[in-house]
Amino acid sequence: MQTMPNSTLEQVVGFAENSEPRCPCVIVVDSSASMEGEPIRQLNTGLLQFKQELEQDDLASKRVEVAVVSFNSVATVERDFVTIDQFDPPTLTAGGCTEMGAGIEKALDLIEDRKAVYRTNGVAYYRPWLFLFTDGEPTDDVSRAAQRIHEAETNRKVACFAVGVEGANMPRLGEVMVRPPVKLNGLDFKGVFQWLSASMKKVAESHVDEQVGLPAVGWGKI
């Protein structure tokens, strides 16, 4: 198998050992100062729960790949894409501003890089998911990020979801996203991650490019 610069030897070996199609999901987390305290603690607990629930499913543990991007005054790749059994949930801390546009763009770049790795190694993949959490409004220019989301959704390249935590500017968030953002009930991050893990399991059990019906959203309202 010929390797390209964006494929490491470890990746090539990993794909050879596990040739299942991949379901990539990047979780984009607002870690600005307003998330300090209970919100960031509940979110960290949710990430751990997400891993635990998915790795119990044999097929999902081979197919679902997770990455985490945080954004405050800067956007940071906390975890690059790995299968759920190798995923080490980060312990996020809160502080700084809300550079949401930078966080979204870094996540979209991460997805494009990962799709290039899949293509290089002949690995089929499902439509990637971008799942955003925020409790505020952007402090940077989000126009380019919004344009990229709209183009990605129109061309069915990425499915983008947004969850507004208490304090989030929902109308502003709705301008950035194509799908209506969901307002979280209190701090029910447990409910969100249960829904996300159940959704990823359904995707992993489907055929690539198959339309999948998602579970009902009981943890928030549009």
Number of distinct beta strands = 7
Helix content: 40-55%
CATH class: Alpha Beta
Spans where pLDDT lies below 50 across 5 or more residues: 1-5
Query: Count of helices?
Result: 7
Radius of gyration: 17 Å
Q: Give the full name of the CATH homologous superfamily.
A: von Willebrand factor, type A domain
Strand order of the largest sheet: 3-2-1-4-5-6-7
Give a quick set of tags describing it.
222 residues; alpha/beta; Rossmann fold; 7 strands; 41% helix; disordered N terminus
Task: Describe the protein in words.
The chain has 222 residues and is α/β, with parallel strands linked by helices. The protein has one domain (21-127, 135-207, 217-221): Rossmann fold, CATH 3.40.50. The chain is built from seven helices and seven strands; from the N terminus they run H-E-H-H-E-E-H-E-H-E-H-E-H-E. The protein has helices at residues 9-17, 38-55, 58-63, 100-120, 143-154, 170-176, 189-205, and strands spanning 23-30, 64-71, 75-83, 129-134, 159-164, 182-184, 220-221. A seven-stranded mixed β-sheet has the order 3-2-1-4-5-6-7. It is globular, with a radius of gyration of 17 Å.
Brief characterization of the structure:
The protein is α/β, with parallel strands linked by helices. The chain has helices spanning 9-17, 38-55, 58-63, 100-120, 143-154, 170-176, 189-205, and strands at residues 23-30, 64-71, 75-83, 129-134, 159-164, 182-184, 220-221. The chain has one domain: Rossmann fold.
